[in-house]
Structures are given as structure tokens and as C-alpha cells.
Design goal:
heterodimer; A: 804 residues; six-stranded mixed beta sheet; 42% helix; globular; B: 10 helices
């Protein structure tokens, strides 16, 4: 049904509105609009005050109209539900019914009106690029704002709570001002992107007519031939034959005739650089491709002998369990048990309550969360949440578990817990396929497939791959440093464990006896960094700092200094206070006790605008700051904020983009949202550099990046350090610390428990273990000779032929 | 970020069926609508306070009392200007404020407090899942209830992301406190856009993750935790129905109502 039909025939309004509830994406959009509306409503309840607490200009009021022009009826439901959720924080009552209705109208009218205002209509998409579009937007905004205000005002007076003449004008004023001022820039930014993501209502709507709820599967011949029986023990659990896939936005296929199979109880690991097709292959295993992900698909994917194209995705949950890389998106309930019962509540045929209970208890025991059944998932650690998601797919008792980079967002403790679960599931004989950058998890795999540009370029045992560093480098994988130490020494096979390395060294009569130049040097052997100057005054001084959030104390009496040219690594488990320290250093947070001095300026009394010129903080997630249409505008934002002239802004943007290796010429046209994560991260660095800070703080800059992107990011940070920037880096990667940092601070439970060079810190095994970290294998190897070496180059330079 | 007002206390109220609690709060709302005289409304208000006390919901009252007190004050201050009366208030008579108007203002303020704290009582004693289940059993389509609980869950995530966005933009020199009113409104753009962009980028992924876990709009949801109404539920429902009946009868007889003229 087209919008024109709906407008011309009001009787169809109801079916137009109820169609939203027939499609998962529209339901998700509805919930997202509601969540966005409520999330902007709640923190900005104290908006720009006119009568504080009563009439305030709140940015949330622009959301329904913007959402309506993008998502149609989903926005109407979303705005209504979002308003009720907002009320759930203290103002829920009968008036919420009128709040729902008012916001529903506010989120529905713009969709109905745009393009149907006769001569007032611009006949163009709902973005304000011409005066006609501006006029149409103004009229739509005016009518929708008035209707919303009228409905709520009338309802609240009918309830006898507040007079119409007081409330309705206040709501109208809020809606119209926010709609007119914020609406056009929001639409200008969102419309082209939502169009690209195929999320506009008209992009989703056609799928409703083609994909009915009664999608019937077709049985396909069993893969092993007509006489094969899927119940046979050697029958493949997963069989992919000539699988190819091309995304609509790309000209080349992301998968090219990929063929492989997984047998019962087998664990297969997919390796490859970002963009090699690993995640795409995961999505093909449970039918997300081709059912939900648009593109050109060919080939056959069979799970237990049944083609994935034969059944809709939701019906395959009992066969294939898929854990996404961004596992947080799979958490939907407010309790652990609720999370596990939810998928079972949609089973067809239904399960009895006793069986549901039994399955939930078993799934929790499989991931070691038996004691957490009534906890709120959001109050759990990242590692626990990851295991909860695994339990929520295991509760369906799938034959195949697919894990897409399960450890990428976890700290070392979380990764260790994950390995423990994998060990347990392996013993149970569950078939698994997983993609991973963390090579430690490789030891659980029976077989490794390396993907490169959509092809399987290598297949074999994990050991075989690890013993060939040159192959790994060729495919953008990071070889183990320990193995690299023995390259070129005529060792065959190369060692992949400390024990093996010890035996090989013994066989070659090698000992580690570092020359003094190695031990005296800063990391990287060649003393390539400018030594940081402890004689100079500290550029950052943290004096007896404690900090507490409303309910808990996070830092206790922390004291340290950072000197110009330093490269400091902040280490510690999740929750130890590292990110809080970073935010205290640039004045985002102010100490509860003690003080932080930046170039001698107290952060408690220095304006933020002064501090950002000295300390730049690059956040872990670049998407939390990107908002501009082009890379150039994004980087210019910071320089403009600190009051630079137009000419100065231009110079700074050019310098900042050059510093992060970005093409300045292209930056005026390039959409930052269309870039890969590594590139978006570099844009975030450039935008911070535009304020020319002498101190740069990086909060986990390599999370989610592959080996190539990590090397590029770290090379850039090292370059900035060499140019004179003081670097503070939060990281969980000990190999990065070993290679790049000059000094480390160890935090545990908000207390500073260690400080020193990486060599000093790594030589204190108990200290490192106390914060749940593991020193690199290379360091463990050198420590057998009583030395603490940090890099491959250091070990190679320290190898000496033994006397016996 | 946990944003729920639910307090996991082990009171008998918490153990009531979600439908019973929903009916209780609806009863409170109806009673509040039956009266306009503050003397009667204060009795209903007392009942709400009692319910909050029995449920050990004090922490949530503490959290929201400033907002509710402000709204009460607005009501008391604003209504007298819209209500006609016979007895002028000495100092404010030139503004047309009468004692009858003040009485209406107090009554409406109390009604507002009853409704708001009634809502807080429900949210303090009932989880989002319980509410979704109760609403489905009271006739709301399960998909609407599911979208509500999904949105409720995501608000927490988005609030966490929102804090990150505000911090990231402040770290780039964004100052929300300076400039004129329209300039300040425009400064919301760098805050709102990343938040919406961040959420919408995940739409397809969220839909895929739901269907991967077995959800589909056409599938019928059969709740695991389907409670049956127990004796105490029936007892509470009976009391609520009697009180509603009494309130409606009093309203019909004109007891506890003010003659409001605008």
C-alpha cells in the first residue's frame, strides 16, 4: 500500500499502522525510535530552561517529526511508546495515555502530509534543501506540533490535572521550535544514510508483501547423496558448496565459490583480515543470507542436510546458534532467565514449562552462569554477558554453534572465561565454527580455514599455520612473536610454545644473553623514540586523586606524573578505573578529592575550552562523535569550537588529516559514516589533533581492529609521539605495551599498584598476575634465562651461541 | 546502564500477579478522578503512600519527590487563575485569585501526586517482563508488549552511549552553556546525530539477531512464567472493585466534588 493510497483512503490507515507489526525490522525500528526518543528525553529533561522543570526546550521533541518522515507509521508507534517509557521515570499515570496519543499523532501526521499538500508540496524527498522543501517542512511541522499539543493539552485538562491554556502552548512551543531548528539538520544528515542502509519505510515496506509469515521450507536432497542419512555420525553438520555472495553496494563478491564442511563434534576456525568474508560466511550458516541480507547469493548451504534457503531464519534457531560479534545486540531482557526463556517462548511446536525450565538450567550450567539466573544482564561483566548470549542460543540446543569474533570486545579475564566455556563445549562434542583474531583460541580448533578476498586460501591444522609466519603475514594475520624469533635460524618446525622454543634453543645451543644496549634501550631496540624527559616539569600531575560516582567509589588516592614526550600505558582489568583516570586527565570529570594539574593548570578551575587545547582524548568508539557530512567538516568541528579563524581552521584540518595519513583532497567529499572502523578511528584522532593538544590520550585504540589496521594505528601513534606529543594509552594488549610503551601504570580496584617501564613491570610476575594480565610469550621465553625481553628484535639480538 | 525503577524487594505486593497490580493502579487512578475536593483526595493519597510503604518503595519516592513537589506547586499556583470563585484571597484578589480556586488547585495537585506516585508504585513492584505479560493477558498484542520491553532495554544502552557522546563532544570543545537560545539548540545536533546514527546502524543487525534467536512477528509467544491468580490476588481485586464502586457511587451522589467553573 502506498502512502498516496493511505492518504486518499483513510479507511486504510488502520491496516497501514498494523502492518508495522508484521515485519521484524519495522518492529526493531519502532523499538529503536521509542528508545532514542526516551533516551534523549530523559537526560535532556533539564533542557534549555524557560520555566525550569516545566517549560524547557528539549531536543527530543524534534525526534517524532524527523522519524516520521523517514520511517512512516513505525515512527508513530515509536514516538507513542517512547513517551510512555519516558513517563516510566517518574510521570506515569493516566495522562500518559494522552501523551501516547499526542506523540502518536506527532509521529504519524508528517508521514501522511509530506507530498500531499497540493501546491504547497515540493514533490521532493523530505530534506530541506530548497525554499519549497523548507515551506513544506514548516507547514508539516506546524500542523503536527499543534495536533500533538492539542491532544495532550485537552487530555490533561480533561483529567483535571493542568489547564489547557498552560500546557498546550508550552508543548506546541517546544515542538515547533525544536522541529524547525533541529529537524532540517537532522534530516539532512539522516536521510541519505538511512536511504543507503535501506531503512526508509518505503525500502522495508515492499518486503512485507513478498515475505509472508507462512514462509514454507522445501526439503532438498541430502548433501551426501540420495542414500545418505543425516543421522549418520559422519554426515556433515554444515556443508557449504560453491557459496558466493555480493553485497548490493559492492561490485566484487565478498565470498567466491566457498566450499567446505564441518563434521559432528568438529571445531573450525575462520581466519582472515577484516573484509575477507568471515562474518558474511557466518551469516550464511543460519540463512540470514539470503533471507534478511540483501545481495546476490549463489551456491548451497546445508545444515544437517537441509538447505538454509528452505526455511526462514527464525525456524533455523533450533539447528544453528549464531553469536554476533557485537553480542550486546542479542541481549533483550532485564534478567538472565528472561533472556533464556524468551527464545523458547516462540518455539513452534511449543515446549512445556518443565522442558523450558530444564533447558534454561542446562544452558546456564554449560556456560557457568548457574548462580546468576536472576541477575540483570546490564549489571554483569562483559565476559559474563558474552557467555549469557551463548547460553541464549544454546538453550535452543542447536547442532552447530557459530561464533563471530567472540573475544574481540573482551578484556583478558573475559577472554579466559570464554576459552573455559569453549573447552567445556568441545568436551561435550558440540560442532562449532568461529572467527577470531585472538590466536590463543586457535588451540581449541580442529581445523583452520584462512579466507582472503572471499576465497579459502588455506586449510589445515592450527599448528601448521602457526608454524608458518610468512604465510600468516601474507594474509594479513599476525604471527606469534615467539615463532618469528626462530625464523631464519634453520629451525624446522618453528616453535609455537615456550616449551618448544626452549627445546629448539637448546638444540641449536642458543642462550639469551642480551647486550647492554638492548636492556638500556627504550622499547623497540633501535632506541627510535626521543627519550622522555623526567628532568623536565611534568605536563600532567595527578595529586592524591580520589573519585566517586553517585553510588560507588572508583579511584582511591591515586598519584602520578606524566612528563613531556612520555608514552604511558594505563593497564588494569575492566572496572579498575582506567577510563575514569583518562577522563580526569582532560577535565571531563573532576576529582572528588585531590587535584589534576595540566601544564600547571588545575582542571577544577580551568575552563574545558582551555584544557582541550592541551589534552586530547580519543574515545574507544569513534561513532560516538562522528556527526558531520564530510570528513573535512568532522575534523574542523574541534578547531571551530575553540575559536579558530576560518583560515586557521583550514590549516589545522590539513595538518591533522596529514598526520593521520588521510587524503586531504578527498576529505571534502568523503562521508565519515561510510568508512571502515580503522579509518573512522583515524578521523577521530584527526579531529582531536585539530585542537593541537600536546598530550593525547587513547582509550583502547585498537579494539576491533585486525592486525593490519592495528599496525597502522600504532604506527600513527608512534609517529605522533616522535613528533613530540605525550601519549597516554589504555590497552589490554600486552604485546602493544611491550612494543610501544615507555612506561606503565598498573591499576587495580581504583588503586595504583605499580609503575615502571614495561621491562620492570613484566619482570614482576606476581604484579602482572594480580591485575589479570599475561606477559607476551616472547617475554615468558626470555624469562627462562632470567631476562625480560619485550620484542622479537630484542630476542634475536640477544641470541648467543652457548659455551657447551 | 540500569534505568529501571523496579526494586527487587520480597514484599507480598511484589508477589501479586501483574494483572492484579495493574488493576490496583487503575483503581487508584479512577478513585483520583472520582473526587476533586482535597479532603477526599488526601485519603486516596494516603492509600497510595500506604501502598508505597508496604512495598518498601521509599528509594524511588526519594528519587522523584522534587519533580512531583514542583508539579504540585505548579498546580496550586496555576489553577486559581483559571477557576471562578466567590471568596477573594485578600492579597491576590486583584489577580482574581479566590479561595475556591486555591481549593481546586490543591485538589488537582493532589490528584497529580496520586497519579504520579501510583505509577511509581507500579514500576517499583513490577518488572518490565511482568508488565508485558500482564498487558498481553489483558488483551494487548504480544508484539506491542515485546517492542515496549525491547525499547525499555535499549534505553539503558542508549543512555550509556549518550553519556559517551556528550563526553566525546565536550572533549572536542563543544560548550553547551554559551551562545543565544537558537545557537544553543543547534549545538544539540552534534549530540543527537551520533546517538541516532549509532542506533540506526544497528537496526539490521538487531533484526537479524532477533530472528537468529527464533523470534518472528507471526510466531505466537507462550510465556513461561504464566502465573495463575491466587487467593490473595482475588482478595485484593475484590477490595479494589469495592473501592472503585464506592468511589463511583460517591461521585454520582456528588460527594467529594467541587463545583468548578472556568
Amino acid at each position: 500500500m502506498s502512502v498516496a493510497n493511505v492518504v486518499s483512503d483513510p479507511r486504510r490507515w488502520w491496516s497501514d499502522l498494523t502492518d508495522v507489526w508484521r515485519d521484524t525490522r519495522l518492529i526493531v525500528l519502532t523499538a529503536q525510535i521509542a528508545a532514542i526518543y526516551a533516551a534523549i528525553l530523559i537526560p535532556f529533561k533539564a533542557g534549555i530552561p524557560i520555566i525550569p522543570g516545566f517549560v524547557e526546550l528539549r531536543p527530543a521533541n524534534a525526534i517524532p517529526i524527523v522519524a516520521s518522515l523517514l520511517f512512516g507509521p513505525a515512527a508513530a508507534w515509536g514516538a507513542g511508546i517512547g513517551n510512555i517509557i519516558g513517563d516510566c521515570f517518574g510521570t506515569l499515570g493516566p495522562a500518559s495515555v494522552f501523551g501516547f496519543l499526542g506523540n502518536f499523532i506527532f509521529g504519524y501526521l508528517p508521514y501522511l502530509m509530506w507530498g500531499h499538500l497540493g501546491w504547497l508540496s515540493s514533490g521532493r524527498p523530505p530534506v530541506v534543501k530548497s525554499w519549497r522543501q523548507g515551506l513544506e517542512f514548516g507547514v508539516v511541522c506546524l500542523v503536527a506540533s499543534a495536533a500533538c499539543a492539542g491532544m495532550i493539552g485537552w487530555g490533561v485538562e480533561w483529567l483535571g490535572l493542568l489547564p489547557f491554556a498552560i500546557l498546550a502552548p508550552a508543548i506546541f512551543f517546544n515542538n515547533i521550535v525544536m522541529g524547525l531548528v533541529l529537524g532540517p539538520p537532522l534530516l539532512g544528515f539522516l536521510y541519505p544514510r538511512v536511504q543507503r542502509w535501506r531503512l526508509r519505510y518505503q525500502d522495508i515496506y515492499p518486503s512485507l508483501s513478498t515475505k509472508g509469515p507462512n514462509f514454507q521450507g522445501v526439503e532438498t536432497p541430502a548433501v551426501g547423496g540420495p542414500d545418505s542419512d543425516p543421522s549418520e555420525s559422519n554426515f556433515p553438520v554444515l556443508d557449504c558448496r560453491d557459496v558466493s555472495f555480493t553485497y548490493p553496494s559492492q561490485s566484487t563478491p565478498v565470498l567466491r565459490q566457498v566450499s567446505f564442511s564441518i563434521h559432528p563434534g568438529e571445531i573450525v576456525m575462520l581466519l582472515g583480515r577484516s573484509g575477507s568474508g568471515k562474518s558474511t560466511l557466518c551469516y550464511a550458516c543460519n540463512g540470514l543470507i539470503p533471507h534478511l541480507i540483501a545481495g546476490t547469493f549463489s551456491g548451497v548451504v546445508c545444515v544437517q542436510g537441509r538447505e538454509t534457503v528452505a526455511d526462514p531464519v527464525w525456524k533455523q534457531a533450533g539447528r544453528v546458534g549464531l553469536v554476533f560479534q557485537d553480542f550486546e545486540t542479542q541481549l533483550i531482557a532485564t534478567t538472565v532467565e528472561g533472556e533464556l526463556f524468551h527464545p523458547l517462548e516462540y518455539r513452534d511446536p511449543p515446549l512445556s514449562s518443565a522442558e523450558m525450565q530444564q533447558r534454561v538450567a542446562y544452558a546456564l550450567s554449560r556456560v557457568g552462569l548457574e548462580q546468576c539466573h536472576d541477575r540483570d544482564p546490564m549489571a554483569m561483566s562483559g565476559g559474563q554477558r558474552q557467555r549469557l548470549v551463548m547460553a541464549s542460543v544454546l538453550v535452543q540446543e542447536p547442532t552447530l554453534l557459530v561464533l563471530d569474533e567472540p573475544g574481540s570486545d573482551l578484556d583478558p579475564a573475559g577472554r579466559e572465561q570464554l576459552r573455559e566455556v569453549l573447552r567445556h563445549l568441545r568436551e561435550e562434542g558440540l560442532s562449532m565454527m568461529m572467527t577470531e583474531h585472538d590466536h590463543e583460541t586457535l588451540s581449541y580448533a580442529d581445523r583452520v580455514l584462512v579466507l582472503d578476498e572471499g576465497d579459502i586460501v588455506w586449510e589445515g591444522k592450527p599448528d601448521e599455520l602457526l608454524r608458518h609466519p610468512s604465510l600468516m603475514r601474507q594474509w594479513g594475520l599476525r604471527p606469534w612473536g615467539l615463532t618469528e624469533c626462530f625464523e631464519g635460524l634453520g629451525v624446522d618446525p618453528l616453535p609455537i610454545s615456550v616449551e618448544e622454543a626452549w627445546i629448539r634453543a637448546d638444540a641449536l645451543n642458543l642462550v639469551i644473553d642480551p647486550p647492554s644496549a638492548v636492556l638500556d634501550s627504550a622499547p623497540g631496540l633501535a632506541n627510535q623514540f626521543q627519550p622522555w624527559d623526567r628532568k623536565a616539569s611534568p605536563c600532567l600531575r595527578v595529586e592524591g586523586v580520589s573519585f566517586r560516582y553517585a553510588e560507588s567509589s572508583v579511584l582511591h588516592d591515586v598519584e602520578f606524573s606524566i612528563y613531556p614526550g612520555d608514552f604511558l600505558a594505563l593497564l588494569g582489568p575492566n572496572g579498575s578505573g582506567k577510563s575514569t583516570v583518562a577522563r580526569l586527565l582532560n577535565g571531563l570529570l573532576l576529582p572528588t578529592h585531590g587535584r589534576v594539574l595540566v601544564d600547571g593548570l588545575d582542571t577544577r578551575t580551568t575552563p574545558m575550552n582551555e584544557l582541550v587545547k592541551r589534552v586530547g582524548l580519543v574515545f574507544q568508539n569513534p561513532d560516538h562523535q562522528i556527526f558531520a557530512d564530510t570528513v573535512w567538516e568532522e575534523v574542523a568541528f574541534s578547531a571551530t569550537n575553540i575559536g579558530c579563524s576560518e583560515h586557521e581552521v583550514e590549516i589545522r584540518v590539513q595538518e591533522a588529516l596529514s598526520a593521520v595519513g588521510f587524503n586531504v583532497e578527498r576529505s571534502g567529499q568523503l562521508d565519515p559514516f561510510s568508512l571502515r572502523k580503522g579509518e573512522r578511528q583515524r578521523i577521530a584522532v584527526a579531529s582531536v589533533l585539530a585542537t593541537k593538544p600536546s598530550i593525547l590520550i587513547f582509550d583502547e585504540p585498537t579494539t576491533g581492529l585486525d592486525a593490519v589496521e592495528t599496525d597502522r594505528m600504532m604506527a600513527m601513534i608512534r609517529e605522533l609521539n616522535q613528533q613530540g606529543h605525550t601519549i597516554v594509552m589504555i590497552t589490554h594488549s600486552m604485546s602493544l605495551v611491550a612494543t610501544y610503551a615507555k612506561r606503565c601504570l598498573l591499576l587495580k580496584e581504583g588503586r595504583l599498584i605499580g609503575e615502571g617501564s614495561p621491562r620492570e613491570i613484566f619482570s614482576m610476575a606476581s604484579l602482572v598476575q594480580a591485575v589479570g594480565l599475561k606477559v607476551p610469550l616472547i617475554t615468558q621465553f626470555s624469562q627462562r634465562w632470567g631476562q625480560t625481553l619485550l620484542t622479537v628484535d630484542e630476542v634475536k639480538a640477544s641470541f648467543q651461541t652457548g659455551s657447551s | 546502564m540500569n534505568i529501571s525503577l523496579y526494586l527487587p524487594n520480597k514484599t507480598w505486593v511484589h508477589q501479586l500477579d501483574g494483572r492484579t497490580k495493574t488493576l490496583m493502579v487503575l483503581g487508584i487512578f479512577i478513585l483520583a478522578m472520582c473526587f476533586s475536593h482535597p479532603a477526599y483526595l488526601i485519603v486516596v493519597f494516603g492509600v497510595v503512600m500506604g501502598m508505597l510503604g508496604v512495598s518498601s518503595a521509599g528509594p524511588n519516592v526519594k528519587k522523584t519527590w522534587v519533580l512531583t513537589a514542583l508539579l504540585f506547586c505548579y498546580s496550586v499556583v496555576l489553577w486559581p487563575f483559571f477557576v471562578e470563585g466567590m471568596t477573594p484571597v485578600p492579597v491576590l484578589s486583584s489577580l482574581g485569585v479566590t479561595w475556591e480556586g486555591l481549593l481546586v488547585g490543591m485538589g488537582m495537585g493532589l490528584r497529580l501526586l496520586i497519579m504520579l506516585w501510583g505509577g511509581i508504585w507500579l514500576l517499583s513492584t513490577t518488572t518490565v517482563e511482568e508488565l508485558a505479560l500482564a498487558s498481553q493477558r489483558l488483551g494487548l498484542p504480544s508484539r506491542v508488549g515485546f517492542a515496549f520491553s525491547l525499547a525499555f532495554r535499549w534505553v539503558g544502552m542508549l543512555l550509556g552511549a549518550g553519556i559517551g557522546v556528550v563526553q566525546a563532544q565536550r572533549s572536542r570543545g563543544l560548550d553547551m552553556t554559551s551562545g543565544g537560545i537558537f545557537g544553543r539548540i543547534r549545538k544539540y545536533v552534534p549530540l543527537v546525530v551520533p546517538l541516532i546514527g549509532h542506533a540506526l546502524r544497528q537496526t539490521n543487525l538487531l533484526a537479524m539477531s532477533l530472528e537468529s534467536k527464533g523470534f518472528h512477528p507471526s510466531a505466537t509467544r507462550r510465556f513461561y512464567a504464566v502465573q495463575k491468580l491466587r487467593l490473595k490476588d482475588y482478595m485484593v481485586i475484590s477490595v479494589v472493585l469495592v473501592l472503585i464502586g464506592l468511589g463511583c457511587w460517591m461521585r454520582w451522589k456528588g460527594i467529594g466534588t467541587l463545583d468548578i467553573r472556568f
